[in-house]
Amino acid sequence: MHWKGVIEQYREYLSVTDKTPVITLNEGNTPFIACKNLTKAINPDISIYLKFEGANPTGSFKDRGMTMAISKAVEDGAQAVICASTGNTSASAAAYGARAGIKVFVLIPEGKIAMGKLAQAMIHQACVIQIEGNFDEALTIVKGVANEYPVTIVNSINPYRLEGQKTAAFEVCDHLNGYPDYHFLPVGNAGNISAYWMGYKEFHKLGKINGLPKMMGFQAAGSAPIVLGHVVENPKTIATAIRIGNPASWKMAVDAAGESHGAIDMVTDEEILEAYSMLASLEGVFCEAASAASIAGVIKKNKEGMFSGGERVVCTLTGHGLKDTEMAINLSTRPVTVKADKGEVLRVLGY
Ligand code: F0G
Question: Does residue 123 have a pLDDT over 90?
Answer without folding.
Answer: yes
